[in-house]
Amino acid sequence: MRQATSHPNERPSAGRRWSGPPCDLNAGENGRVWRELPRLVPALSDGSEPRPESVGSKYALYEEIVEYVRLAAATCPLVLVLDDMQWADSATWDTLEHLPHPERFLAKIAELLPAGGWLFLTTGDIGAPVARRGGERWRMIHPPTHLQYFSRETLRRFLARHGLRTVHIESTPMCRSLYGTLEGLQRFAAGPARGFAGVVSRLVPRALARRLRFTVDLGDIMLACARKG
C-alpha cells in the first residue's frame, strides 16, 4: 500500500519504502495509538514502546489498515495503489475466500496461464466434517474478511467453468502461532473455548505466544491442484 506524495511533482522512486504517513495521522495528532501498523510504517509509532519484532495478529493489522484508510480519506485526498496482487502468481494461498468477485480473479488467472499450466490454491472446505459440525460457528465464517465458501465439489465446478481441470484435492495442515490461535478463539469461538483462550492469553506472555508455533490439520482447509486445458 502506497500513499500519493503531497507535492504534485514529487514521485516515489522504484523500490523506495514508504517512510512517513500521510495527513499526520500519528498518535500525537489524533490520539490514535497504532499497535500493528508501525511495523510497516515506523513513522506511525508513538515512540512509547519498541516495535514488535515478530509478526503480530493479521486480524489486528487488518483492522488498523481499514481504520487508517478511513481516517486518511476523511482528512485529505487519498490515492491507494495495491502492489503484489496474488493473481499474478499461479499459487494463490488463502485468497479466494476474501474476494467479493472470485470469478473475475479466476478468469484473470485462466487468461495468464499457458496451456498445460498449473494452478495451486488453498481455501476453506465448508463440506468438511468439522465445518458441518460447526455450522454457523465454523471458525472460517467471519465476514467481512471471509466472503466465499467452497466445498470440494463446488470448487471443482468453479474451476471447470474457467477451463481448469482439478487434478487433486486434499486437506492441508497449517502452521499456527499460539498467539494467533488464542486471538482467533477469543474473537470467533463461543462458550468454554473462548473463556479458556482468554485465560491462557493472560497467563502466557505475548512475545512467547508469538514464538510458539505448531502445525495442525483439522481437515477444513483444502489444497487444490488444477491444470489448464
- Supply the helix-strand structural class: alpha+beta
Head-to-tail CA distance between termini? 35 Å
Whole-angstrom Rg? 20 Å
State the total count of DSSP E strands. 8
User: Percent of residues in helical segments?
Assistant: 25-40%
- What strand line-up does the widest sheet have? 3-4-8-5
CATH topology of the largest domain: Rossmann fold
What letter string, H or E per element, gives the SSE order? EHHEEHEHHEEHHHEE
Number of helices: 8
**How does CATH name the architecture of the largest domain?**
3-Layer(aba) Sandwich
CATH superfamily of the largest domain: Vaccinia Virus protein VP39
Structure description:
With 229 residues, the protein is an alpha+beta fold. It folds into two domains: 2-81, no CATH class; 85-229, 3-Layer(aba) Sandwich (Rossmann fold). Helix content is 34%, strand content 17%. The protein is built from eight helices and eight strands, in the order βααββαβααββαααββ. It has a four-stranded mixed beta sheet, covered by helices on one side.
List the helices and strands and how they pair.
Blueprint lengths: L1 E2 L23 H4 L27 H18 L4 E2 L9 E3 L8 H11 L5 E7 L4 H6 L17 H9 L3 E8 L2 E4 H11 L3 H12 L2 H6 L1 E4 L4 E8 L1
Parallel strand pairs: 3-4
Antiparallel strand pairs: 1-2, 4-8, 5-8, 6-7
Helix pairs in contact: 6-7
List keywords for this structure.
229 residues; alpha+beta; Rossmann fold; 2 domains; 4-stranded mixed sheet; 8 strands; 34% helix; disordered N terminus
Task: Please sum up the structure shown.
The chain has 229 residues and is α+β, with helices and mostly antiparallel strands. It has helices spanning 27-30, 58-75, 102-112, 129-134, 152-160, 178-188, 192-203, 206-211; strands at 2-3, 80-81, 91-93, 118-124, 164-171, 174-177, 213-216, 221-228.
